[in-house]
Amino acid sequence: MMEGPSKSGFREIGRRELGFLPPLLFARRVGGSEALVKRLSLYGKLHGHKGCVNTVHFNPSGDLLVTGSDDRKIIIWDWAAKTKKFAYPSGHLENVFQARIMPFTDDRTIVTSAADGQVIVGQIMGNGQVSTKHLGTHRGRVHKLAIEPGSPHIFYSCGEDGLVQHYDLRSSSATKLFYCSSFSENKQPIPLNAIVIDPRNPNYFSLGGFDEYARIYDIRNYHIDALSSSDRPVDIFCPRHLIGSDNAHITGLAYSNTSELLVSYNDELIYLFRKGMGLGPNPRSSPVEESEKLDKPQVYSGHRNSKTVKGVNFFGPNDEYVASGSDCGRVYIWRKKGGELMAMMVGDKHIVNCVEPHPYFPFLATSGFDKNVKIWTPTASESVPLPENAKEVMAANKRGREARAQVALSPDVIMHVLRLHRRQASAYVEPQPSTTDLESDNDDEREALLVGYTGADADSEENSDGDPRDCIVS
């Protein structure tokens, strides 16, 4: 009889204590054990920011954590000791949305992006001073950066202007690759929320934003020395029932080590796509009958992703689990295979946005509207069951999604979105040839605009020191 995950995990712990397993091999064998996942508990809180913490990332070795906040500061933590190791002003003028430590730089090179549309590199000098340099600019907020696996020099950015840019720290400026455009005839830029690189094949990267499609690109199709190129995805993923949707858009993406792609939708669910589930380079040219033949993606439900731009992540040394934050202030962890909910922890007084796994061990760092970062480790004395009110919380989240779907289709909301998009577009979208007026009867354009509605007015999107009604984070 095969041993279950719990028994297997305890056996490996015993072997480690006897010295039969080296640390990393032990982590890979035990980190995915349900016995440990169900013992996750709060290890500690990291206090130091004065605003919502919008980004948390471990360095490649996992001993440090870098965070960014609405207070526009970058902090590097010795998270195990729960102490601040280093802090500096990011150089950004608005809320920091992303901060990443570049690999193989002795943890001294940090790239950041923010609501001001700027991409900045911070270099920690030997004397403890920090030199910051502007690398690139977007006309709109920049939620995510993607580092080429193992590279100390190369990374990408995507912004709400729809632009994708390539950076090489050995160069003095960014390279514009292309504008991600809609599949409608007007080819309007799609505001982007997420970009991730396939770790198994770094030539491929995925984009997600203000429509229902997760697009896959091959960097080899673009000339890095060119000013810009056309938008040419090689494949596209979308749940069948969301194709042609007018009220869904993507907030988060994540690749597994086997090229599976997680896609988290605003006020919808999380889906897992594998190779062979794609719609091809253009969904409008794919017959409906062909899409119906595709395998359905695995679904993860129970949370709510409505008020902010939430990420999603794999968890476990072999990506055995899926983790996400929620508007209800919980951290959700599902078993990847089958989608069973394994853990639900209270992670924030308001909303959890970031759930970041440790690169080797079954530890998590989470953040949201609270001004602290929470560290979770499998240190509970016994297995922690789901909360007694778990079903009620998930039912409330479901009712919220359904109510929002009905509201999003009302005529008043449609006109609100049109007016909102006009104000935002005038601020950060470059003029396009033959641009039509937003009040034309172009149905495709109206559909593209609707997916961006989040139920909050643009005038309230900047932070007022932690008020969940005023804080839009990445």
From TrEMBL:
Q: Which organism is it from?
A: Ananas comosus (Pineapple)
* Stated name of the protein: DDB1- and CUL4-associated factor 8
Chain intervals for the UniProt region annotation (Disordered):
282-302, 428-474
GO cellular component terms, semicolon-separated? Cul4-RING E3 ubiquitin ligase complex; cytoplasm
Keywords tagged on the record: Repeat, WD repeat
* WD repeat copies, ranges: 46-78, 345-376
Q: Which InterPro entries match?
A: DCAF8 (IPR045151), WD40/YVTN_repeat-like_dom_sf (IPR015943), WD40_repeat_dom_sf (IPR036322), WD40_rpt (IPR001680)
* Superkingdom of source: Eukaryota
Q: Name one Pfam family in it.
A: WD40
